[in-house]
Amino acid sequence: MQETSKIPPKVIAAIVATGLMSFCGVIVETAMNISFPKLMTEFNVTTNVVQWMTSIYLLVVAIIVPLSAPLKKGFPTKKIFITANLLFIVGVSIDICAPDFPLLLLGRAIQGVGTGIALPLMFNIIMEQVPSQKIGMMMGFGNLITGIAPAVGPTFGGIIVSSLGWR
Q1: What does pTM read for this prediction?
Q2: In contact, 113 and 64? CB cutoff 8 Å
């Protein structure tokens, strides 16, 4: 019996959805750096304090990514994906309303949890649900998503901050 090499539409949709979430997580990571001068003024903090915006995010992502295997074993993919999205949205919402810098950091940490869950989830879906003949192509697609985001993040951040403000 020959293995089919067609990727089911449901799997493509799952990869695109987790890819978009991963893209948003990575772009937010790099876009925020552009807002540092405005944040320093707004919250009256120094450069070494405002840099925690990036540090806390990356630290949380680095802690959460290795937990993807136990999460995947314990929960269905759909629930993990929904949780990652909700955490990311909650973090963004906290940041939009943050009256002080510690609350802004909390929002960033929560965003980091969402991104840390979503990044490996996309690759897990590819490895588990894509036919073996298409895994290389889809892994390339996944890497393209996470590779483009840091390249466009600072430009995106500059456009957003200059036109809409840091919030």
Answers
A1: 0.88
A2: yes
